[in-house]
Each structure stands twice: as structure tokens, then as C-alpha cells.
Specification:
Elements (H helix, E strand, L loop, with lengths): L4 H18 L2 E2 L15 E4 L3 E3 L9 H7 L5 E3 L7 E3 L2 H18 L2
Antiparallel strand pairs: 1-2, 2-3, 4-5
């Protein structure tokens, strides 16, 4: 993967874009070597916690195709746990509905 300012700028913009959409705080911690575990690009994202943010020019196009007419996509590699892929806007709506329901229940 080529290095330099452009990939870093693209990654930083992806983090800022996701933060605007879902909230949370950007971290600026980077592992000093490849053996260190990442602490995530965003932390304290309401209800969902910590996450890595990745952007690719043409990456994951098959995922976009699969989810096109669906609400979510369940994916799993052999001997790994299930992952759920969904549009961030849909997740945000679900979380807002849960928050509203919680407020009604707590009245």
C-alpha cells in the first residue's frame, strides 16, 4: 500500500465523516509496530463503542451489491464469528428509535 499524505488525508476524512454521522471521538493513537493492537479510530460512539474506520476506492463493491435490496448483510469467514453489515444511516435510525423508546419507558 503506498504511503504518504494522500492516504492519511483520505483516512482522516473518513474518520471525520463517520464521526459527524454517528458521534464519538476520534483517537489519534497509532501503533508503533505491527504487533501492537489498535485502539480504534473512533471511541465512545453512542451505543456501539469503539471502531476502526476504513475507506477503499473500489473496495467492498460486492458487499454493496449484496446489500443493495436488503436491510443488512450477515457475513462470516470459516471458524470466525458472524458480522452484520448495514448502512450507517439505518443503524443511526435504529439507535434513535431505541433511545426514544427508552425515554418513554423511563417516564
Amino acid at each position: 500500500m503506498p504511503g504518504g499524505k494522500s492516504p492519511k488525508r483520505k483516512g482522516d476524512e473518513g474518520e471525520r465523516e463517520f464521526k459527524r454521522l454517528m458521534g464519538g471521538e476520534r483517537t489519534f493513537w497509532q501503533p508503533e509496530n505491527s504487533k501492537e493492537k489498535s485502539h480504534g479510530d473512533l471511541i465512545n460512539v453512542p451505543y456501539i463503542g469503539r471502531g476502526e474506520i476504513k475507506r477503499r476506492k473500489g473496495g467492498w463493491m460486492q458487499i454493496y451489491h449484496w446489500i443493495e435490496n436488503n436491510d443488512f448483510l450477515g457475513i462470516r469467514a470459516d471458524r470466525k464469528e458472524w458480522l452484520v453489515v448495514m448502512r450507517a444511516e439505518d443503524l443511526k435510525l435504529i439507535l434513535q428509535e431505541m433511545d426514544e423508546l427508552k425515554q418513554v419507558v423511563n417516564k
